[in-house]
Amino acid sequence: MDYKINYTIATIESGWNPCAKSRTNDYGITQHHNDINAYCNPEYSFGKTAKMMSSYVKAYGVYDAFRAYNAGVDGMKNGKAYNYAQKALSIYQSI
């Protein structure tokens, strides 16, 4: 998988804080929902993100993959996360 995708997501989701925890129970550098294994474990977080985003990119392309990462596949299909994807694409293309 393109390393720029993990870089982009870590930048947006946690500002590169491997021990980030959101008020909605998202954990780690790439903020995985209800997955305590991601907390303070960037190797795990990046691996999980890479696997997830590889399948999303293959199915939907980079732009919609960012939308699916943020809002879930159903959310992406229902028109959510355009602002997130615009921000992500801007970071991704600047790397």
Structural description of this entry:
With 95 residues, the chain is mostly helical. It has one domain (3-94): Orthogonal Bundle (Lysozyme), CATH 1.10.530. It has four helices and two strands. It has helices at residues 3-13, 42-60, 62-77, 82-94; strands spanning 26-27, 32-33. Strands 1-2 form a two-stranded antiparallel sheet. Helix 1 (3-13) crosses helix 4 (82-94), helix 2 (42-60) packs across helix 3 and helix 3 (62-77) packs antiparallel against helix 4. It starts with a helix and ends with a helix. The model has no long low-confidence stretch (mean pLDDT 97).
Give me some keywords for this one.
single chain, mainly alpha, Lysozyme, two-stranded antiparallel sheet, 4 helices, 2 strands, globular
How many independent structural domains? 1
Radius of gyration: 12 Å
**If strands are numbered along the chain, what order do they take across the biggest sheet?**
1-2
Summarize the amount of helix as a percent range. 55-70%
What is CATH's topology name? Lysozyme
> Biggest β-sheet: count, sense, barrel?
2 strands, antiparallel
Counting DSSP E segments of at least 2 residues, the number of strands comes to 2
How widely separated are the two ends? Answer: 15 Å
According to CATH, what is the class?
Answer: Mainly Alpha
What class would the helix/strand composition place it in? mainly alpha
The rough form would be described as: globular
Count of runs of 4 or more consecutive helical residues = 4
